[in-house]
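Field: COMPLEX_INPUT
Field: COMPONENT_COUNT = two
Field: RESIDUE_TOTAL = 841
Field: MODE = joint
Values follow.
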Amino acid sequence: MPQNTTIAGAGASRPRVEAVELTKRFGGVHAVKGVSVAIAAGSVHGLVGENGAGKSTLSKMIGGVHAPDGGELRVDGRPVRFASPRDALAEGIAMIAQEIALVPARTVIENVFLGLEPRRAGVVQTRELRRRYAELEARTGFGLPADARVGDLRTAEQQKVEILRAIARDARVILMDEPTAALTIDESRRLLDIIRRLAADGTSVVLVSHHLEEVLDVCDAVTVMRDGALVRTGPAKDETPESLVQAMLGRDLELMAPAHRRPKPDAPVVLEARGLRRAGALDDVSLQLRAGEIVGLAGLVGSGRTEVARALFGADRLDAGEVRMGGRRLRLRHPRDAIRSGIAMLPESRKDEGLLMLRSVRENASLTTVAQLARAGVVRRRAERDQARALADRLDVRAASLEQPVVGLSGGNQQKVLFAKWLARRPTVLLADEPTRGVDIGAKRQIHDLLVDLARDGMAVLLISSEIEEVLSLSHRVLVMRAGRIVEEIPGDVATEENVMRAAFAPPRTSPGAPST
Amino acid sequence: MSTTTTEPTAAAAASRGRRGLIVRDYGIVLCFVALFVALSLSTSTFLTERNLLNILDQSAPLGIITCAITICIVCGIFDLSTGAIYGLSAVVAAKVASSTTPDVGVAAGVVCGLGLGLANAVVIHLTRINSFIGTLATGIVFRGLALLITGGAIVTVTDSGFRTLGRSELLGAKYSVWVFVVFFAITAFLLARTTFGRYVFAVGGNEEAARLSGIRTELVRGACYALSGLAAGIAGVLAASRTASAQADLGTGLELSAIAAAVVGGTSILGGEGAVWRGVLGVLTLAIIGNGFDLLGIDSTYQLLVQGVLILSAVAADQLLRRR
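Field: COMPLEX_OUTPUT
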């Protein structure tokens, strides 16, 4: 066993949670290799690394989800062993996972106090429950309606429910794994404020995140991991995004996307939408996509960005409006109609809408082209394999083999398989909804390069992203949405975070002279 | 604890993981082979051509239905009307055969099964009811129709030509065995090698992803209901032919036996995963357990206990190994 690091003097500076040489293996994969980290009381501790670096596994060991194979976990200096998240919670450690684990059909208050309901003779004491909820609300200032169904809330609000739940259980350490992945910029900022407030109250927060600016913004200390091993832990103020990236990758990488040419102004319009309407989602949306152009679609979550893509793809029924390609009006009754016209859509959630998680890379990559790869309804296996291999090579999909189920791949590789599935059709229009969500920094860069290459080869790309830097660095034009409308069009060379966000947030303009019909 | 104990533990965990996957994928094969060998050694009558062909003949109707039910389950749907379709097709076959010729009767039974399967597809598509409830209801309707036709009596066919399918042999095996083998081959090929099979996996594995990939999910599902109806029709005709008679309550509970066999074979009840050969192996495993009990002269009551426990352990093992 490697030497334990001796901790000088127990006292006020004693860490609340300490991992000592923690080790974890999954099958043949050495996920965490003897990592030691100390988390101080009342601090925000960032955990960064590429996908597969072991940061989630480390936090899951602290949270009692995985039992370590070696090493020791200490809470307030005492060695502890967690067999389940419940054991961890008993020590005041709560985990907020990437996938939200709430009961969607029940209310906020029921979810917050699930399992803790004050009761007398088995009957829940409703008044006492409400009093406690009011107390929690006063502490956090979330402003969540107690009686709303959790399933009706947006992701950001569901996360707040999870946080309330952790606080209601007297958590002194809250582990958050990518909490901002599904949030808009504004919601992320508010969450970071909440994290600061929790820390000021003495709660320790461990933040696992891909967003380096966010980590540097809110954390007191940052731990960098690479390939399951600790690279370093240090004060956040000593780090920069570049220094973190270098530590994560073990080499330098430009953070910004590559420079790319604008399409010629006379490039043909390949897709045009006019007056798209759908009750509660889209309100008179019109847009044009030119060959070779990357058009960014920015806006808050819920502003209708995804709905635009789904409308152009025939995934949702429209109340009004038309979509034209090459001057011809499309009849979009089913995604099939859009696909046949040369439109492809990378959906927002690869797991729920994109991939067959249990099937192989090969089958996923051929799903949109399997009819072309078949003769008399029988799939020609060699043709299918050749196509999948060519795409996997081109996109640098890292899988053990083409037969590996995609569920076992990293987020970045899954996303590449999703690209493969659509590039197999050689589309003329690509609607990419959050193409780099939950993807590590290396794969993200590859996807950015890919989008630029595709546009250069003449594809029209509609890029939807909650990451404003991504939209700004890749787009030739930025369309900003608010409340189901496109409210602003900003050329890529003058678009800034500030003018895009101002358009996304501004209250509806009331033009005094305009006649109201 | 020292490093020397950590290392073997990790290695053991690794090999346990691999072994787990093998158990999940080929557990049913091991189970079948073990039973087969055990029965061959412990009885003198099990490993005889006559006994084995007899098992296949007995299993043919359930086996045919299980082939189709497996495809339904992979596609994410349950067809609980299949037992009723089996009964109604048998009744229709017998009724038509007695008033016309045996061949017309057989054709009528098969067409009846296919038609009822299509009816399921249409009803469930139009009402958008969950398949479980929808086919439960249509199954009751079909059973009612069978009762209406027979008036509660047994329909017997006097023309001995009607028995050909169930009783005559070709190359040493009953026709029913050949029908089973051919139906198995066709459905296995459909699921494993054709675009239709791919779509079945896609719809069952992730319906929204399938739709967004341009797949007409309602057509794929409809085809599965039709296939299931066709299988039940063929199986019902075989059963009617075997006894030259049919009655309305024929095949009660058969749908559950088929689902159980599919699950024992290792097809996931959650859809999106599975294979037709697994369902057939499930049927044969349950069949040789029954056969073994008979040959060993054990009270058939215990047979139910063993089959139930086997089904439970198959599902439990699947869940357990999936959690890794």
